[in-house]
Design brief:
Elements: E1 6-9, H1 12-15, H2 24-34, E2 39-41, H3 44-74, H4 86-103, H5 116-124, H6 137-153, E3 156-159, H7 163-166
């Protein structure tokens, strides 16, 4: 067992705070991980979700920019078109995100070993991290990552803003 604690990151900890992990809290996390104070873990599932949400947000914001440009043009002002290559930007974003994690000596593990029977019982029983509608499969996979990290490191910390899935108190 590795005695260095693990820090498991949920997608909302990136999406809701800092897409490029450049804020002061992220700089501290990345520095401390690089120094070996803990093992930074950002599962491939989280990377996929963050990249997907980055794509959706980029498309949405580009559409807003095009609409704003059209509004300004109606006022008789010529502004350049907002043309972006979404696929290129998303590809570069994913490369940069992975590089930030691995540059801090973090890992990006693939899916954990999961007992689908157990997850089915949890989902149909509406047990956390599943909600009252049985939603929460991705959260359950993240939870399984956490359990594997506890087995490997003795303890793990989950950074997530998803209180409904992971908070032990009442919803």
């Amino acid at each position: 067992m590795n005695n260095r604690r693990a820090l498991l990151v949920d997608s909302n900890a990136i999406v809701a705070t800092d897409w490029f992990l450049k804020s002061a809290p992220w700089r501290v996390i990345l520095y401390d991980a690089q120094q070996g104070h803990f093992h930074l873990v950002v599962p491939a599932l989280v990377i996929q979700e963050v990249v997907g949400r980055y794509r959706a947000t980029l498309i949405e914001e580009a559409e807003k920019a095009r609409n704003a440009n059209n509004s300004v043009r109606r006022l008789g002002v010529e502004v350049p078109d907002c043309q972006i290559d979404v696929d290129d930007l998303v590809s570069r974003y994913e490369v940069a995100l992975r590089a930030k994690v691995t540059g801090a000596r973090g890992t990006i593990p693939d899916l954990p070993s999961v007992d689908l029977g157990k997850l089915t019982i949890m989902a149909t029983g509406r047990l956390r991290p599943f909600d009252h509608d049985g939603n929460g499969f991705r959260d359950a996979i993240l939870w399984e990552h956490g359990l594997e990290l506890v087995a490997q490191h003795g303890r793990a910390v989950l950074i997530s803003g998803d209180r409904k899935a992971f908070h032990g108190g009442k919803d």
